[in-house]
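Q: I'm building a small set of examples for a reading group on sequence design. Run inverse folding on the following structure and report the sequence directly after it, with nothing in between.
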């Protein structure tokens, strides 16, 4: 009706009486008042109070993604727990679970502020007093999503990252020493890296044409954890009897189940990191699936060719190699690139694990060999598989931007990540060892950490191999 009235010439109104005009105005005003009242009753005017509207679709996906990433923690606990000896199953799983408690609280108290607050200390970390205890985000909506959801999503990344390192120190550290270690590592390694790479004013986030590419934590999570794991393994030294004694996994069924949970959780890990529910989300989810499958297939082929048999441990190692390689790249590569990255990661990780055996260092569960090496490969090689639309957008910002230019940005970020993780981890190890103690005493190590530290046994009785 309004559109029809607009098409009527002003000349048609010249003959109207003032009374008729006034009556029309009254009726229109009454109609608008009724409409406003009805909308107000249905909550249609949330914007009138100055609050942004919630995008329920995106918010629902981010809630699911948050839960999926949390699911990865028990998945990791099962994966690691099945790989250690029977006498250390519970202590190893506790290393993953306790991170939920310790880092879960630290993230709310100060971690979110350190990671995503405005830059302070020359950009080393961030800080925003309103993020302290999350007190300033109670009513905040960011891009259609309550900021609480975004804070909890990122908090799950902070939880699982130090838990990854536990794979390198399994079966030989005090629980108290490990607890202090992850507190200091979170504050001195994870939070600064998170700020540099993911915060809006982080210096690596703004490097080059469109920043360093690290969708879900190839650098922030896997490379940093992998390098730190290597430093910890070298600092602590080998487990008693390694590699002379055979240290059989306690439960490969549990390890395979844990790997399955990690694969499922990784969809939230990567696809959730797009912070939307659209085309980019579908791309990231697809590349995650493709690379994981490619990694598993490649490791299977490698074992079949070399040993004429395929192992369950090799299969799940291939899954992880494919997943960590695609983690930084899932938002920018296409399926062909995902297949190549997954397969290459499996091959390189296989060589890295064999090199460990030759060099003799005791990265118990191959955190460096899988997470550090595999994701590092993805961080660098993704530069040569970026989809054309991304490169065109980058070239629009910096003329002539090429894959080589992006590779140099990725390499710079890699070097910085390795340097910070290695140096800070070594200092943290020294502090932990000199204060609460880090390496457990030999008698307790022989007895097993489950019984000596926790007074429990994972399977009800001590198996014969528990004395090894």
């Amino acid at each position: 009706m309004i559109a029809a009235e607009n098409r009527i010439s002003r000349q048609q109104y010249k003959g109207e009486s003032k009374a008729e005009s006034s009556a029309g105005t009254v009726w229109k005003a009454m109609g608008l008042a009724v409409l406003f009242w009805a909308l107000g009753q249905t909550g249609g005017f949330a914007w009138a109070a100055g609050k942004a509207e919630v995008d329920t679709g995106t918010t629902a996906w981010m809630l699911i993604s948050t839960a999926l990433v949390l699911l990865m923690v028990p998945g990791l606990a099962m994966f690691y727990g099945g790989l250690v000896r029977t006498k250390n199953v519970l202590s190893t799983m506790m290393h993953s679970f306790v991170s939920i408690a310790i880092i879960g609280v630290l993230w709310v108290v100060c971690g979110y502020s350190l990671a995503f607050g405005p830059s302070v200390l020359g950009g080393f970390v961030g800080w925003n007093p309103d993020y302290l205890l999350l007190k300033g985000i109670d009513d905040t909506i960011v891009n259609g999503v309550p900021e609480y959801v975004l804070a909890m999503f990122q908090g799950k990344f902070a939880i699982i990252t130090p838990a990854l390192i536990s794979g390198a120190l399994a079966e030989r550290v005090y629980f108290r020493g490990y607890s202090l270690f992850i507190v200091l590592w979170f504050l001195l390694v994870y939070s600064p890296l998170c700020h540099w790479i993911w915060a809006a004013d982080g210096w690596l986030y703004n490097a080059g044409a469109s920043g360093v590419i690290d969708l879900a934590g190839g650098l922030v999570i896997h490379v940093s954890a992998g390098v730190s794991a290597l430093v910890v393994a070298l600092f602590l030294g080998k487990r008693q009897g390694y590699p002379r004694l055979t240290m059989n996994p306690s439960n490969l069924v549990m390890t395979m189940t844990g790997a399955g949970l990690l694969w499922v959780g990784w969809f939230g890990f990567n696809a959730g990191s797009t912070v939307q529910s659209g085309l980019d989300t579908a791309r990231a989810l697809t590349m995650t699936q493709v690379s994981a499958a490619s990694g598993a297939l490649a490791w299977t082929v490698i074992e079949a060719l070399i040993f004429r048999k395929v192992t369950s441990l090799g299969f799940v190692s291939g899954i992880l190699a494919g997943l960590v390689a695609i983690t930084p790249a899932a938002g920018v590569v296409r399926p062909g690139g995902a297949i190549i990255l997954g397969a290459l990661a499996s091959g390189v990780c296989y060589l890295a694990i064999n090199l460990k055996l030759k060099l003799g260092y005791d990265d118990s569960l191959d955190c460096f060999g899988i997470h550090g090496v595999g994701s590092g490969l993805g961080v660098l090689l993704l530069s040569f598989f970026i989809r054309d639309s991304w490169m065109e957008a980058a070239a629009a910002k910096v003329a002539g931007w090429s894959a080589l230019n992006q590779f140099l940005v990725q390499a710079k970020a890699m070097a910085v990540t390795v340097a910070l993780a290695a140096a800070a981890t070594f200092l943290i190890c020294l502090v932990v060892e000199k204060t609460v103690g880090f390496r457990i005493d030999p008698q307790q190590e022989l007895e097993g950490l489950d019984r000596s530290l926790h007074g429990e046994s994972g399977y009800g009785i001590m198996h014969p191999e528990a004395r090894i």
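The longest helix spans residues 403-435.
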